[in-house]
Amino acid sequence: MCSLISLSLRRLALPWKAISSQSVIPFMSSQRCSAIPAFHYRKPIMSSYPRHYSNYTLDLTEVKKFVDAKIQEHKVVVFSKSYCPYCTMAKTTLDKYPISMEVIEIEDRPDAEEIQDHLNALTGGRSVPRVFINGKYIGGGSETTQFDRQGKLELMLKEAGAL
């Protein structure tokens, strides 16, 4: 059985920030017990932008122009993140049709946050996917799939001239 390493009463009375990095806390597993050093919890430093492009400055008018141009230039546009299951759902549903669609994967772009902010201003939500047909926002992955099941998606694509 695993023995529990106890901390002194003095340490237990101190706030969490005061616990030394030399403290030892128990680590329990089904096969063995070992002790690992306790580390301070450090609140992450939040920068205003962006996650890994700290020296990058953005021109918001350029972001708006980019998003608006993509929506106007293409009959079908999907703003997406490659790892998002709802984005995959929307793209898979649209892939059933022989259409030309513009898929913009935003997760690695330095202006991803600003694109989502502008999409929020346009559609009332900043989550992805954001699916546009003929310049009109139709919804995300669930809505696109629902329209497909109801037969409305094909009609929207035909009206837009995408099919």
Structure description:
The protein starts with 8 loop residues before the first helix and ends with a helix. The strands form two sheets. Strands 4-3-5-6 form a four-stranded mixed sheet. A two-stranded antiparallel sheet has the order 1-2. A hairpin with a 4-residue loop joins strand 1 (about 25-30) and strand 2. It has about 160 residues and is of the alpha+beta class. The protein has a domain at about 60-160: Glutaredoxin (3-Layer(aba) Sandwich). It is built from six helices and six strands. InterPro entries: GLR_AS, Glutaredoxin, Glutaredoxin_euk/vir, Glutaredoxin_subgr, Thioredoxin-like_sf. Keywords: Disulfide bond, Electron transport, Redox-active center, Transport. Pfam families: Glutaredoxin. It comes from Saccoglossus kowalevskii (Acorn worm). This is Glutaredoxin-like.
Level-2 CATH architecture of the domain at 60-160: 3-Layer(aba) Sandwich
Spatially, the strands of the biggest sheet line up as: 4-3-5-6
Estimated radius of gyration: 25 Å
Helical run tally: 6
**So, the CATH homologous superfamily of the domain at 60-160?**
Glutaredoxin
Structural class, judged by helices and strands? alpha+beta
Q: Percent of residues in helical segments? A: 25-40%
**Tally of DSSP β-strands:** 6
Oligomeric assembly = single chain
Strand content range: 15-25%
Average pLDDT level: 77
**Segments where pLDDT lies below 50 for 5+ residues?**
1-56
H/E series: HEEHEHEHEEHH
Distance between the termini: 68 Å
The CATH topology of the domain at 60-160 is given as: Glutaredoxin
- By CATH reckoning, the class of the domain at 60-160 would read Alpha Beta
